[in-house]
Write a structure and sequence with these properties.
This protein is an alpha+beta fold. It is built from 7 helices and 9 strands; from the N terminus they run E-H-E-E-H-H-E-E-H-H-E-H-E-H-E-E. A hairpin with a 2-residue loop joins strand 4 and strand 5. Helix 3 crosses helix 5 and helix 6 crosses helix 7 (191-201).
């Protein structure tokens, strides 16, 4: 299920969501829909969309693999063995080969690494192929009775490189918007990527961000909200 909440800050909105839904923070994912800082005529606020665990697990995620201790790459139980084999079979059915290993284990989260000479194809444009394989892996995990476990797939450290690229893009576009006072609409992004853009620019004066469009892949508009010269 998805819900929308609004607060003066992202933290306030998240706390409100947790209290009203009666959930712990790790039981839902947050997507920032709109963020506006305080100005002379408007009060600042942050609007978020909350995806509960059942909803989040069925959607592709670009979430960055957490920097926990590197895991033993060998599956430790039947569930991990089946997940590794499932991902490997998907790639083989695509016509490619890859070495599939566990890279990290956390509470309700498992990271799987793909090593292949076809990594660029497995990643796809803007990571969409990797997200699609990850989606199938999460659906399969649910069928194995692990609906509360998120599967994160990565290859060639794409997740981290993509995150760094988006942060640079956010700052570059914000600087451009501040200079010419014209809004810019970014490329379609998944929920995690959009939240990264919103969060990166949340503390920059005279800049506001807002998600536009429908579906999983929405666009962010970066606008100038200061005084025109």
């Amino acid at each position: 299920m998805t819900y929308e909440f609004e607060g003066k800050t992202e933290r306030e909105a998240i706390e409100l969501a947790a209290n009203e839904l009666g959930l712990q923070r790790d039981q839902f994912d947050v997507e920032i829909l709109e963020s506006q800082k305080n100005s002379l005529f408007k009060k600042g606020y942050v609007k978020i969309c909350v995806h509960t665990v059942d909803d989040v697990e069925k959607k592709p995620s670009a979430a960055r693999a957490a920097p926990g201790v590197v895991a033993d790459p060998v599956p430790k139980d039947e569930f991990e063995e089946k997940m590794v084999e499932f991902v490997k079979n998907i790639i083989e059915k695509m016509g490619y080969d890859a070495k599939v290993n566990i890279i990290f284990r956390e509470e309700r989260k498992i990271g799987i690494k793909l090593e292949s000479s076809y990594s660029s194809i497995l990643i796809g444009r803007k990571g969409k192929n990797l997200d699609s394989i990850q989606l199938l892996a999460n659906i399969y995990a649910g069928r194995l009775g692990h609906e509360d476990t998120r599967i994160i797939l990565d290859t060639e450290n794409y997740r981290i490189r993509r995150e760094e690229s988006l942060v640079r893009l956010a700052y570059t576009v914000a600087d451009k918007v501040q200079q010419n006072h014209q809004s810019v609409l970014l490329e379609p992004m998944n929920p995690f990527e959009r939240r990264l853009i919103h969060t990166t620019l949340n503390d920059i004066p005279d800049i506001e961000t807002k998600s536009e469009g429908d579906g999983l892949y929405k666009q962010i508009r970066i606008s100038y909200k200061g005084f025109m010269k």
